[in-house]
Amino acid sequence: MTAITEEAATPEAGRARSTALAGAAASAEAVPVTPPGARHLVLVDGSGYIFRAFHALPPMTRPDGTPVNAVFGFTQMLSRFLMDHRGSHLAVVFDAGRVTFRSDLYPDYKAHRPDPPPELVPQFALIREATEAFGVACVEREGFEADDMIAAYAKRFVEEGGEVTIVSSDKDLMQLVRPGVQMLDPIKQKPIREAEVVEKFGVPPAKVVDVQALAGDPTDNVPGVPGIGIKTAAQLITEYGDLETLLANAPKIKQPKRREALVENAEKARISRTLVKLDDAAPLTAPIEALAVKPPEPATLKKFLEVQGFRSVLARMGLGDAAGDAGTRARNSAVAAHAAAQAVTPKADPGSAPFGGYETVTTLEALQAWIAEAEAAGLVGLDTETDSLNALRANLVGICLSTAPGRACYIPLRHVATGAAQSDMLAEKAPEAPPQIPFEQAIEALRPLLTDRSVLKVLQNAKYDLEVFCRPENGGIAVAPIDDTMMISYAMEAGRHGHGMDELSVLHLGHKPIPFDEVTGTGRARVTFDKVPLEKATAYAAEDADVTLRLWHILKPRLREEGALALYEQVERRMVGVLRDMEIAGIKVDGAELARIGEDFSQRMAQLEQEIHQLAGRPFNVGSPKQLGEILFDEMKLPGGRRSKATGAWGTDASVLEEVAASGSNSGAALARTVLDWRQLQKLKSTYVDGLQAAIDPRDGRVHTDFAMAVASTGRLSSTEPNLQNIPVRTAEGQRIRQAFVAEPGHVLMSADYSQIELRLLAHLADVPALRDAFKKGQDIHARTAADIFHLPPDAVDREARRRAKTINFGIIYGMSAFGLAGRLGISPAEGKGIIDAYFAQYPGIRDAMERLKEEARLQGYVSTSFGRRLWVPDIGAKDMVRRAGAERAAINAPFQGGAAEVIKRAMVRLPRALGDAGLRARMLLQVHDELVFEVPEAEVEPTGRLVREVMEGVVTLRVPLAVEVGTGRSWAEAH
């Protein structure tokens, strides 16, 4: 990280200061200057401001390595308030702790909130120290939240004839807006008065609490009334006047689901109102006059600022010189001018600047100018052009930069000659490469920018570019810090649409980027990017960087508004670096063992083919669906055949063959079963045995899969090229394939697998005391379920009863129907319905939870995980019954799959640092749904296993304990 002390007097320090100063200055200057004699109290939501500054500013450290970016933004803001007379009274209000009267009333209130980022933790105390050093009143009280203290001081100050400005964007504070009290959104730099509150909630400030009580708030675990969102809540409160009147009239409401929800959850609504209503009668920690603005004690403030290295603030407060030599003073003047321009100049609409007219950078002088421009901005859109889609084999062909909407360039690095002019050919001259900066010179010029911690690099699908830069052949650069527009979009709208750059550009910018095929050609005529003429390459490549930066300007501010900022900052953005390192590491594969497995599979397939031919009565191509259909339905006259409307051929997919196989013990059923066995072996051999052989990197003998981060609608990762997440785990063939994944000499593989995590999330989310009790006691959950729903004594539960309970336990999470359960268990649909009815009768909380999820999806278009991620369900309103039923099943399953994905991701972002801090050398290699695979030195197995289990089991707090099973072995099969 960049130290921002001015003893070093680095350009990086100036850039960090200018970027921070722009935001801090804008926050202060948006508060009106207080005329002499007027009473104006400015209340700064300190806790909210800390997080905002931390996420808005690039990482910075003071000389001893302590992170201080949030502290720096905070001191800039305070100095502006004091120097420019913004308020006659000023106080910064903090949360004193997590335990308040609300958590005593409702233990689940804010219980699932994640811990703050490790880089932010040491800054909490420094910000309180900064407040005291500036002589500003610091307000906090045990048992109350900062919002309560803001409410109490605002009420008292207005009663005494003053005016109040609350510096915060927290929606919970909007209930305080009234004559004499306004808010200032420090992100959008605009005041929040009654009109803005009505726009947000659909009701005036006095009724905001009632709307919030109905809608609830998953971010804070405020329950609300299931199925009622802000819009519906506003309509109801407008119609009935207030919450109690609504609840009194709830039995008369015509809509049955809404009526039932309100009647059954009336007490939850009342509890929710108590949770969200701010206590303006909270006892004040200091009298009003103690908040009067007064000059700071110079020696105290100077010492604090010097320790942090904040020379620019020292200079502004008249306590020191901002620079020590002429060169540094000149740089600081430029920084100040840039900061001032940022603070007072409105930012351009990202969609208004024209696309195109980009620059091709072919000289070192031109490149240096672009680098200086990016450094001054503190922000740059970044993209790479390569000759391969495989990041770990791709050669860097060019780099694109964008410093503002419509302002971008392309830096060609390895373009080659694409042909020679006729005159050159006649002269027998070799074609020359186009003009470009020598690769090493360009990379060394760019390296400081790409690693500068005070300049934020904005990318789309950042993991690919980071891996490209990491390759020694491409400079071996660890680019940081980064933002990823793909993951910003995914954090807010998983399942709602795709998150590729082209789709996002059309959706948010109304602009369709130049297609790749238009630049490189298609089919046999396609050329690699290093052969694309520079004019075409620049138009295409620079546009990518331009679009990416524009998307960032539009999408990043929405994260807080959509309640997805913590998810992105603490999980998705950190996953980029974690997965980059996992993909670079790869996992070792024993090629000789794979060859043996392939030979064995081939022999077994040959034997199965002979059996199939005997059952069919003649030889045929087993791999031909057409020939198989003719034998089954034309020659053997088996029932159940269906012809394709398009081709007229018989269908022979897995579902058809399974129906035939279940039809009896005749030769046709035996033929279908044997073909299914042959197909399974054929798929395993082609996909995994042959596919893995081809994927082994000859340089290290390892396979490097690609984890797709923004594909699954549930937040789960997927794995491609090769797919290592779909190897069957419960079959002997799948175990054989896992046997080929091995550890390096002196190491073992370690598998850490969450046990029944989706069922634990079901017990957490639904009101099912029996399941919670079983998990807390460590009981066999399937045996306990069997005993409950079949009314058996615990010691009378046999294997069949347990099997049925296990099938329904997992099936219920996927919205399984009675017909589906009957098919799984080989029973009649009536019997399957009886089991499901018994299950719901025993566990009514599960049925209620499922109905609530479907209703939430219908009303909102999405459901939420226990951790606040929105999972969109686009087909929930489809007119087609089949699509709508599928969407309802997805709405039921999404919070469990999505919740499980969230848990393991949170563990993944914590484990590398935890291992490093413990001095352990284990490497995380794979994530397969609920399982993590590590390569561990043999001497460190015990401490590594202990630490991995501790981190994974403690990463979130649920109503039931998490459990992790850890195993080790020379191969993946042995470890799992």
UniProtKB/TrEMBL annotation:
CDD domains recorded: DNA_pol_A_pol_I_C (cd08637), DNA_polA_I_Ecoli_like_exo (cd06139), H3TH_53EXO (cd09898), PIN_53EXO (cd09859)
Superkingdom of origin: Bacteria
Annotated ranges, domain 5'-3' exonuclease: 39-294
Pfam families reported for this sequence: 5_3_exonuc, 5_3_exonuc_N, DNA_pol_A, DNA_pol_A_exo1
Residue ranges of every copy of the DNA-directed DNA polymerase family A palm domain listed in the record: 734-940
Residue span(s) of domain 3'-5' exonuclease: 358-560
Classification via InterPro entries: 3'-5'_exonuclease_dom (IPR002562), 5-3_exonucl_a-hlix_arch_N (IPR020046), 5-3_exonuclease (IPR002421), 5-3_exonuclease_C_sf (IPR036279), DNA-dir_DNA_pol_A_CS (IPR019760), DNA-dir_DNA_pol_A_palm_dom (IPR001098), DNA/RNA_pol_sf (IPR043502), DNA_polI_H3TH (IPR020045)
Gene Ontology terms, MF aspect: DNA-directed DNA polymerase activity
Enzyme Commission identifier(s): 2.7.7.7
The reaction(s) this protein catalyses: DNA(n) + a 2'-deoxyribonucleoside 5'-triphosphate = DNA(n+1) + diphosphate
Protein keywords: DNA damage, DNA repair, DNA replication, DNA-binding, DNA-directed DNA polymerase, Exonuclease, Hydrolase, Nuclease, Nucleotidyltransferase, Transferase
Subunit structure: Single-chain monomer with multiple functions.
UniProt similarity note: Belongs to the DNA polymerase type-A family.
Biological role: In addition to polymerase activity, this DNA polymerase exhibits 3'-5' and 5'-3' exonuclease activity.
UniProt protein name: DNA polymerase I
Originating species: Paracraurococcus lichenis
Organism ancestry: Bacteria, Pseudomonadati, Pseudomonadota, Alphaproteobacteria, Acetobacterales
